[in-house]
């Protein structure tokens, strides 16, 4: 169970793994068979094993050739000058009395934050995957990386964010994405233990973004690309007036927009919270600010449609909260169809996909 907001809203989530996979940057880099096995639901019972398998396979391929080298800054006491001299350290420690000099220099090595990050992901996967064979592969691959000189430390994400993948090492992006996803999936959601829950499971803002990206990723990879286009554009109000006045208009930033070649447009607004509330009379109503938001999206786009065959629909898709009944209602605000739907994240991956797919029905 995950508590969102200020503790007033509780959203049952059986596992964050499915959301993490659809929201990750790994899917575009997977081979067709690997991607299809994840998207079709064939690996729903062992999602972590599926990603760890990709990671282990990629690392084994690099170990057969060579790990990516990079220059890393290093400081050491030398018997000859290398790089630049650290005069303060040399004088303070009286190194010249012993025939040594403190130097700073760059060294070409495999012990980079990138390889350390990948190695730490392998060590984690070796402890948590279900398959004993896969656990052995991950452990052996991590051991081989350490034998080649990769140190046993897990770099901070800030170090990895500063690491830039160039043209010559672009193939590393796939293994970096797999390692990041394996570590993100280290959520102890199934059994109690001593390990603390990662910040992801306690940070409502990150969960909201994860929910938005997962739904966008689902449609991006599940819809037929010859019939649908998936995007998240910033919409135009279509307003006319003084530039100073137009600058005061808020931006219309969408979560997911589906465009069909036949002219059908579906604007999906996602909310990782309850979209219903009880008014002062004890009646359950859709939150007005959410409905106004969807209405604004739909009406601004309706003006730009070229013919009667081009339709614009709005969907308010929100996470089902604890104790709430499922919601799936629709109405027409002439001539536009608007739907309000809940998603039960406590269901199985196949059930969650089926609920997302209802946006097209």
From TrEMBL:
It comes from the Bacteria. InterPro entries: McrC (IPR019292), McrC_bac (IPR014407). Pfam families: McrBC. One of its GO terms (biological process) is DNA restriction-modification system. This is 5-methylcytosine-specific restriction system specificity protein McrC.
